[in-house]
Amino acid sequence: MPIYEYYCFDCRRRVSVFYRTISAAERTAPVCPQCEGQRLRRLISKVAIVKSEEARLDALADPSMLAGLDEEDPRALGRMMRQMGSELGEDMDDPEFNEVIDRLESGQSPEDIEEAMPDIGGDDLGGGMSGMDL
Description:
Layout: E1 3-8, E2 13-18, H1 22-27, E3 40-42, H2 53-61, H3 74-87, H4 95-105, H5 110-116
Antiparallel strand pairs: 1-2, 1-3
Helix pairs in contact: 3-4
């Protein structure tokens, strides 16, 4: 039972269309479930891979994950933090954490981020980013 994603040019939304069979998807023109428009363009959907917790932890323990990590390069640190969050299967909806990663990936140093965001991490981490062991 495939679910295909489309962009609807009528309501300008990304929509999902469910088909009972692959052959039904091939022979039926898609219709927008929001506005019933028929001007849709098929999109490439994201793929989700289900991993066990053990497999995710094994991926984190893989030494190649740290290959090329320059501790002095904030961009590399940001990429590693984003990849670790992804491997852990964490939903990165924490705006503060995402802002730190975005700042690192833009090249801002941890010290500059801590100065710009003095309340980051709160008192639980000993105050500031210095308690985060970056």
